[in-house]
Amino acid sequence: MGPIRWEGFTPLSCEQGHTPETVVQMSTLSPSAAIINEDRYPLSEPDSPGYADVVTAIRRQLRASGCSVLADFVAPDKLDLFTEAGVGVAPWAHHGTETVNVYNTAPDPSLPAEHPAHVALRRGNAFVARDLIPEDSVVQSLYTNRAFQRFLADCFELPEIHELADPLSALVFNVLEPGNAHPWHFDTNEFTVSMLTQAPEAGGEFQFCPGIRSPQSENQSAVADVLAGRAPHLVRRMRPRIGDLQLFRGRYSLHRVTTVEGHQERHTAIFAYASAPGVVGTPTRTRQLFGRLSDLHRGDEASSDGLAG
Ligand SMILES: O=C(O)CCC(=O)C(=O)O
Ligand SMILES: [Fe+2]
Description:
By secondary structure, the chain is of the alpha+beta class. It has one domain (18-290): Jelly Rolls, CATH 2.60.120. It has helices spanning 20-29, 49-65, 79-89, 138-144, 146-155, 220-227, 283-290; strands at 67-70, 94-95, 98-100, 121-123, 126-128, 162-163, 171-176, 182-185, 192-198, 202-203, 206-209, 236-238, 245-248, 254-257, 260-261, 266-274. Strands 1, 2, 5, 6, 7, 9, 13 and 16 form an 8-stranded antiparallel sheet that branches. A 4-stranded antiparallel sheet has the order 8-14-11-12, covered by helices on one side. Strands 3-4 form a two-stranded antiparallel ribbon. The termini are far apart. The structure holds 2-oxoglutaric acid (AKG) and fe (ii) ion (FE2). Fe (ii) ion binds next to loops.
């Protein structure tokens, strides 16, 4: 496998009168013409009717279910770059088999017996931290691309979005080996952007319960019902394809990935952003995911919105 490189812009020809300086400048503003399927997602033309139509459709889906899958987001001839990016770093994933609950919180005996926080789940997945993903990787280029960020902010109806300040969790590959699952959980961040880069032979289905909790209500009884398998009507099932981009409000929607079957690992690139700058994961969560901390992780364990986890 050759080195993975993506320049982040389509080189402009001399006839157009662009100097090297303007080309470099455009590389941070204009996307991605090279790797994004601009026929369907015209990110380099944010003022076009086509862009507005795409954003409107995505907003509608996000409002309705907290999830929108942007089919064929990556240009077909660039899919391999994403798969190779994941395959190249998967050996560096931190593997942890841990007993967790849906909130990723420590056991709390003071909670009532029926509280879903008492349900112990086995999490057998692995994460590659951002600081182990080469800077010239295609996923780093996409993560930091301004046009991509502007597009995501438009989709999530935010004035702007910010890269996490967390050097580990801002951008990760999630590696699920055969036999492992990512059990029911809520995400720490409000919304997540992810892309399957290698599919399992079987299993590894994404399941979610749209908007099962909100900042106003934890809705513990419904969460407990889902964990006990008593509420299949609340669960939606999805099987993403490589190169589809998934936008997801994972802080409010309980979700999981079912057990991976067959011989091939399931790889997902996860692009984490926040509506405010400077967001860093808590030390507890960071240790769970990566087995280590970075200098930036402070001792502050409290979440900002009052929800657990
Ligand atoms: O791999 C996926 O599709 C989802 C992963 C996930 O939910 C997470 O990392 O929080
Ligand atoms: Fe998640």
